[in-house]
Design brief:
237 residues, alpha+beta, Beta-Lactamase, 6-stranded antiparallel sheet, 37% helix
Protein backbone atom coordinates (compact mmCIF):
# COMPACT_ATOMS: atom_id res chain seq x y z
CA UNK A 1 0.00 0.00 0.00
CA UNK A 2 1.37 3.39 -1.01
CA UNK A 3 1.75 5.74 1.96
CA UNK A 4 -0.20 9.01 1.87
CA UNK A 5 1.54 12.33 1.12
CA UNK A 6 1.18 15.25 3.57
CA UNK A 7 -0.69 18.28 2.25
CA UNK A 8 2.29 20.49 3.16
CA UNK A 9 4.80 18.19 1.48
CA UNK A 10 6.77 20.90 -0.34
CA UNK A 11 7.08 23.00 2.79
CA UNK A 12 7.95 19.90 4.82
CA UNK A 13 10.79 18.98 2.46
CA UNK A 14 12.07 22.56 2.51
CA UNK A 15 12.08 22.46 6.32
CA UNK A 16 13.96 19.16 6.29
CA UNK A 17 16.64 20.51 3.97
CA UNK A 18 16.93 23.62 6.13
CA UNK A 19 18.56 21.47 8.82
CA UNK A 20 21.25 20.23 6.42
CA UNK A 21 21.38 16.86 8.13
CA UNK A 22 20.61 14.35 5.37
CA UNK A 23 23.55 12.01 4.67
CA UNK A 24 25.66 13.43 7.50
CA UNK A 25 27.83 11.14 9.69
CA UNK A 26 26.55 9.56 12.89
CA UNK A 27 26.40 11.83 15.95
CA UNK A 28 26.53 10.63 19.54
CA UNK A 29 23.56 12.71 20.70
CA UNK A 30 21.19 11.07 18.22
CA UNK A 31 22.71 7.61 18.71
CA UNK A 32 22.07 7.93 22.45
CA UNK A 33 18.42 8.83 21.91
CA UNK A 34 17.90 5.83 19.63
CA UNK A 35 19.58 3.61 22.22
CA UNK A 36 17.28 4.91 24.96
CA UNK A 37 14.23 4.29 22.78
CA UNK A 38 15.33 0.69 22.23
CA UNK A 39 15.86 0.11 25.95
CA UNK A 40 12.70 1.83 27.18
CA UNK A 41 10.46 0.13 24.63
CA UNK A 42 12.33 -3.19 24.94
CA UNK A 43 12.66 -3.37 21.17
CA UNK A 44 15.62 -4.88 19.28
CA UNK A 45 15.51 -2.16 16.61
CA UNK A 46 15.28 1.60 17.06
CA UNK A 47 15.69 4.26 14.39
CA UNK A 48 15.77 8.01 14.02
CA UNK A 49 14.51 8.43 10.48
CA UNK A 50 14.13 11.45 8.21
CA UNK A 51 11.58 11.10 5.42
CA UNK A 52 13.03 12.51 2.20
CA UNK A 53 11.24 12.80 -1.15
CA UNK A 54 11.74 9.15 -2.20
CA UNK A 55 13.39 7.51 0.78
CA UNK A 56 13.63 7.41 4.54
CA UNK A 57 17.17 7.92 5.77
CA UNK A 58 18.47 6.81 9.17
CA UNK A 59 20.43 9.38 11.13
CA UNK A 60 20.70 6.96 14.07
CA UNK A 61 20.03 3.25 14.24
CA UNK A 62 20.14 0.35 16.68
CA UNK A 63 19.89 -3.30 15.66
CA UNK A 64 19.92 -2.81 11.88
CA UNK A 65 22.64 -2.33 9.27
CA UNK A 66 20.64 -0.50 6.61
CA UNK A 67 21.12 3.27 6.33
CA UNK A 68 17.95 3.97 4.36
CA UNK A 69 14.80 2.40 2.91
CA UNK A 70 12.40 3.24 0.13
CA UNK A 71 9.73 5.73 1.18
CA UNK A 72 7.22 3.74 -0.85
CA UNK A 73 7.32 0.96 1.75
CA UNK A 74 8.30 3.01 4.82
CA UNK A 75 6.19 2.74 7.96
CA UNK A 76 7.53 6.16 8.95
CA UNK A 77 5.87 7.67 5.89
CA UNK A 78 2.60 6.90 7.70
CA UNK A 79 3.89 8.23 11.01
CA UNK A 80 4.49 11.74 9.63
CA UNK A 81 0.80 12.05 8.73
CA UNK A 82 -0.26 12.75 12.32
CA UNK A 83 0.90 14.20 15.65
CA UNK A 84 0.59 11.02 17.73
CA UNK A 85 2.53 7.79 18.01
CA UNK A 86 1.72 5.53 15.05
CA UNK A 87 1.48 1.89 16.14
CA UNK A 88 1.21 -1.35 14.16
CA UNK A 89 0.94 -4.28 16.54
CA UNK A 90 1.09 -7.02 13.91
CA UNK A 91 2.08 -5.94 10.42
CA UNK A 92 1.44 -9.37 8.94
CA UNK A 93 -2.20 -9.12 10.00
CA UNK A 94 -2.59 -5.51 8.88
CA UNK A 95 -3.86 -5.14 5.30
CA UNK A 96 -1.85 -1.93 4.88
CA UNK A 97 1.43 -3.75 5.47
CA UNK A 98 0.87 -7.49 5.02
CA UNK A 99 2.48 -7.46 1.54
CA UNK A 100 5.16 -4.92 2.42
CA UNK A 101 8.61 -6.29 1.42
CA UNK A 102 10.04 -5.13 4.75
CA UNK A 103 7.46 -7.38 6.42
CA UNK A 104 7.72 -10.41 4.15
CA UNK A 105 11.55 -10.22 4.04
CA UNK A 106 14.36 -8.45 5.89
CA UNK A 107 14.08 -6.89 8.39
CA UNK A 108 10.83 -8.88 8.91
CA UNK A 109 8.90 -6.13 10.67
CA UNK A 110 5.93 -7.32 12.71
CA UNK A 111 5.63 -4.62 15.38
CA UNK A 112 6.23 -0.92 14.75
CA UNK A 113 5.75 2.21 16.86
CA UNK A 114 6.90 5.64 15.72
CA UNK A 115 6.66 9.15 17.19
CA UNK A 116 6.76 11.91 14.56
CA UNK A 117 9.60 14.44 14.67
CA UNK A 118 7.67 17.71 14.46
CA UNK A 119 9.57 20.99 14.25
CA UNK A 120 8.47 24.33 15.65
CA UNK A 121 6.56 25.16 12.47
CA UNK A 122 4.55 21.94 12.60
CA UNK A 123 6.46 20.08 9.87
CA UNK A 124 6.88 16.34 10.45
CA UNK A 125 10.46 15.66 9.39
CA UNK A 126 10.59 11.95 10.18
CA UNK A 127 10.18 9.58 13.07
CA UNK A 128 11.77 8.12 16.17
CA UNK A 129 10.60 4.55 15.95
CA UNK A 130 11.05 1.11 17.47
CA UNK A 131 10.62 -2.21 15.66
CA UNK A 132 10.24 -5.83 16.73
CA UNK A 133 10.14 -9.04 14.76
CA UNK A 134 7.32 -10.37 16.91
CA UNK A 135 3.76 -9.01 17.31
CA UNK A 136 3.29 -7.05 20.55
CA UNK A 137 1.76 -3.97 22.11
CA UNK A 138 3.26 -0.68 23.26
CA UNK A 139 2.61 0.23 26.88
CA UNK A 140 1.19 3.71 27.56
CA UNK A 141 4.30 4.78 29.49
CA UNK A 142 6.49 3.62 26.62
CA UNK A 143 4.43 5.68 24.18
CA UNK A 144 4.86 8.75 26.39
CA UNK A 145 8.60 8.13 26.60
CA UNK A 146 8.86 7.73 22.83
CA UNK A 147 7.15 11.09 22.31
CA UNK A 148 9.43 12.74 24.88
CA UNK A 149 12.51 11.36 23.15
CA UNK A 150 11.19 12.58 19.80
CA UNK A 151 11.00 16.09 21.27
CA UNK A 152 14.61 15.74 22.36
CA UNK A 153 15.55 14.84 18.78
CA UNK A 154 13.98 18.09 17.59
CA UNK A 155 15.82 19.99 20.33
CA UNK A 156 19.10 18.49 19.13
CA UNK A 157 18.29 19.35 15.52
CA UNK A 158 17.61 22.96 16.52
CA UNK A 159 20.81 23.11 18.56
CA UNK A 160 22.74 21.77 15.59
CA UNK A 161 21.14 24.28 13.20
CA UNK A 162 21.73 27.29 15.45
CA UNK A 163 25.33 26.22 16.10
CA UNK A 164 25.97 26.09 12.36
CA UNK A 165 24.45 29.55 11.90
CA UNK A 166 26.59 30.99 14.70
CA UNK A 167 29.70 29.42 13.20
CA UNK A 168 28.87 31.09 9.89
CA UNK A 169 28.30 34.43 11.61
CA UNK A 170 31.62 34.21 13.43
CA UNK A 171 33.32 33.37 10.13
CA UNK A 172 31.89 36.58 8.66
CA UNK A 173 33.08 38.59 11.65
CA UNK A 174 36.56 37.13 11.32
CA UNK A 175 36.79 38.56 7.79
CA UNK A 176 36.80 42.01 9.39
CA UNK A 177 39.63 41.22 11.80
CA UNK A 178 42.36 40.90 9.14
CA UNK A 179 44.19 43.54 7.12
CA UNK A 180 41.72 45.65 5.08
CA UNK A 181 43.03 47.67 2.11
CA UNK A 182 41.58 51.16 2.64
CA UNK A 183 42.02 54.24 0.45
CA UNK A 184 44.00 56.97 2.22
CA UNK A 185 41.95 59.66 0.45
CA UNK A 186 38.31 58.58 0.21
CA UNK A 187 38.48 55.80 2.84
CA UNK A 188 36.93 53.25 0.46
CA UNK A 189 37.70 49.56 1.05
CA UNK A 190 39.00 47.11 -1.55
CA UNK A 191 36.93 43.90 -1.34
CA UNK A 192 38.06 40.32 -1.96
CA UNK A 193 37.21 40.61 -5.67
CA UNK A 194 39.53 43.59 -6.03
CA UNK A 195 36.80 46.24 -6.39
CA UNK A 196 36.63 49.40 -4.30
CA UNK A 197 33.47 50.15 -2.34
CA UNK A 198 32.35 52.35 0.52
CA UNK A 199 32.93 51.37 4.13
CA UNK A 200 29.16 51.26 4.67
CA UNK A 201 28.58 48.82 1.81
CA UNK A 202 31.48 46.58 2.82
CA UNK A 203 30.48 46.33 6.47
CA UNK A 204 26.82 45.79 5.60
CA UNK A 205 27.77 42.91 3.28
CA UNK A 206 29.91 41.20 5.92
CA UNK A 207 27.98 41.81 9.14
CA UNK A 208 24.46 42.39 10.43
CA UNK A 209 25.33 46.02 11.24
CA UNK A 210 23.22 48.89 9.91
CA UNK A 211 24.34 52.52 9.52
CA UNK A 212 22.94 55.84 10.60
CA UNK A 213 24.72 59.05 9.67
CA UNK A 214 25.66 62.16 11.58
CA UNK A 215 28.45 64.71 11.85
CA UNK A 216 31.04 64.63 14.60
CA UNK A 217 31.78 67.87 16.52
CA UNK A 218 35.23 68.28 14.92
CA UNK A 219 33.86 68.06 11.36
CA UNK A 220 30.96 70.31 12.21
CA UNK A 221 33.34 72.97 13.52
CA UNK A 222 35.66 72.63 10.50
CA UNK A 223 33.13 72.46 7.67
CA UNK A 224 30.01 74.13 9.10
CA UNK A 225 31.25 76.74 11.59
CA UNK A 226 28.16 78.95 11.21
CA UNK A 227 25.81 76.09 12.12
CA UNK A 228 28.11 74.88 14.90
CA UNK A 229 27.94 78.28 16.62
CA UNK A 230 24.13 78.22 16.67
CA UNK A 231 23.89 74.70 18.17
CA UNK A 232 23.68 74.19 21.89
CA UNK A 233 26.28 71.90 23.51
CA UNK A 234 25.35 68.21 22.99
CA UNK A 235 23.13 68.79 19.94
CA UNK A 236 25.72 67.49 17.48
CA UNK A 237 25.57 63.72 16.90
Amino acid sequence: MQPPIPQNELQRLDALRHYRILDTPAEQAFDDIACLASIICRAPVALMTLVDKDRQWFKARVGIDKTEMSREHAFCAHTIMGPDVFIVEDAAADERFAENPYVTSEPHIRFYAGAPLIDGEGHALGSLCVIDREPRVLEPQQALALKALARQVIAQLEFRRVSAQLAGAFADVRTLSGLLPICAHCKGIRNDAGYWETVERYVTAHTEAEFSHGICPACMKLHFPDIEERLAPGEIS
